[in-house]
Amino acid sequence: xxxxxxxxxxxVKRLPLWTTGDRALDLYLPAHIDHNKPPMxxxxxxxxxxxxxxxxxxxxxxxxLAMNGFAAVDVPYTTAEDIPAGEPLGLRPLRxxxxxxxxxxxxxxQFGLSxxxxxxxxxxxxxxxxxxVALLHEQSNPGDDLxxxxxxxxxxxxxxxxxxxxxxxxxxxxxxxLLGASASREVRERWSLQTRVTPAAPxxxxxxxxxxxxxxxxxxxxxxxxWQREGVPFEAHFFPTGGHGFGLALDNPxxxxxxxxxxxxxxxx
Length: 269
Hints:
It contains eight helices and ten strands. The chain is α/β, with parallel strands linked by helices. The longest helix has 16 residues, at about 90-105.
């Protein structure tokens, strides 16, 4: 039986991210929910080099997802703007992102959603965070009261022009904000996603432009190779041009095809 949400108040639900503080998740629901196959809920992580969160990769993407039949939230994860200057972020963004996955699961039944159909999607540094949620989620457990009830591991991972490696050549701004400029190679390796893939990783959708001059495309290629090596399903798309930070690219005659590819992939899960 299909349930119809008839008003704006029913289409957007505000959920607190943590039990203290004022950060919240706005859960956008699709106009129609099929209870026999609830839609994927997508936890969105905007890019911004771990220094900020880009609007066109967060709220704009959440709206697009809801308009295309998915539930979605934009996560106000901690960035360098939120902490003292020069202090590395460390586990803060990962804890926020995994908490968002758990909060969505904790409330899924209220809205006709499934706690077993929660994906994570990130752009650029947000892509690194999405990959961290997929691969390093257990590091987020301490201090999270929902960790004993819900896993922080997503059921799918979407990474769009992601920062993957923290080892040069890489996006040094993201690495410095997350780990600190003086982070050792050992620490950088631990946060380099291509080295952390195991058979327990969720299905992956990864997309990158080959002429990206900001975040090396090689990282996404290595990530796809790692997923293949571990025998985990993945879909990879590499566009010849597009640069970096194009978001949904709805006004680009070539790149505008990628959201449709993502929609088909999400519907296949």
